[in-house]
Amino acid sequence: DTEVTQTPKHLVMGMTNKKSLKCEQHMGHRAMYWYKQKAKKPPELMFVYSYEKLSINESVPSRFSPECPNSSLLNLHLHALQPEDSALYLCASSQLLPGQGGEQYFGPGTRLTVT
Amino acid sequence: AQKITQTQPGMFVQEKEAVTLDCTYDTSDQSYGLFWYKQPSSGEMIFLIYQGSYDEQNATEGRYSLNFQKARKSANLVISASQLGDSAMYFCAMRETGNQFYFGTGTSLTVIP
After folding, report:
1. How many CB pairs under 8 A join A and B?
2. pLDDT by residue (tens digit) across B81-92?
3. B42 contacts in chain A (CB < 8 Å)
4. CB-based contacts of B71: which residues, under 8 Å, 6+ apart?
C-alpha cells in the first residue's frame, strides 16, 4: 500500500480563521514532508520531519505550524493566513535511508483558498 | 546553482509516439537518487521511476524509461507509445544524502490525438 491520505481536499478560510490540514500514511515511513505548490510551479518544501522530529524548516512564516503526533500522522496548523497563502498543500512521506533511493509518495493535496 | 534543470517548459507529442523529457542535475555527492513524477491537473504527484547513482542499467517501468548519462549529469525520461492520459506536468527530482528532495521547474506535456 503506497497511499498517503490528506484531509480536507478543499478548504476556504478567512484571514482570521484557525484551521488544520491532516496527513496520514501507513507505509512505515519515518520521513514526512509538507510542500506548498502554486499553479504551474514545482512544489516548495516547507517542513521535514524525521523520526517525528522537525529536521528542516525552510524559513516558513509562523502562521504555519507543523505537528507530528506519531509516525503515521502529520498536521499543519494554519492561523491568520494571507491571500497569497492560497495554494495546493501537499504532504509526502519517504523511507529514511543513509544514502540514495527512497522515493517520496504524495497525498492528493489540499487546495487552500484564503479570502 | 540550480540542482535540477528542466529546459522544456512545454512539449507536444502525437498519440502513440515516443517523447523524451530532459533533465540535468548538479551535485557533488557520489550517492544520490533521481526521480520522475507526473502531476495531472487533479494535482496529485505520482511517482513514476527511480534511478540510483550507482545503478549501471537504465531504469524502466512499463512505458517509462530513464536515460541516465552520469558523466553528462542527465536523467531524461522517455515515454513510449504516448497516450492521451499522459498529458500532465512532469517533474524531475533528486535526493542527495539526507531527506531533502530538489525539484525541477517541470515540463508540461500535451498528447495530441
Report:
1. 72
2. 999 999 999 999
3. 108
4. none
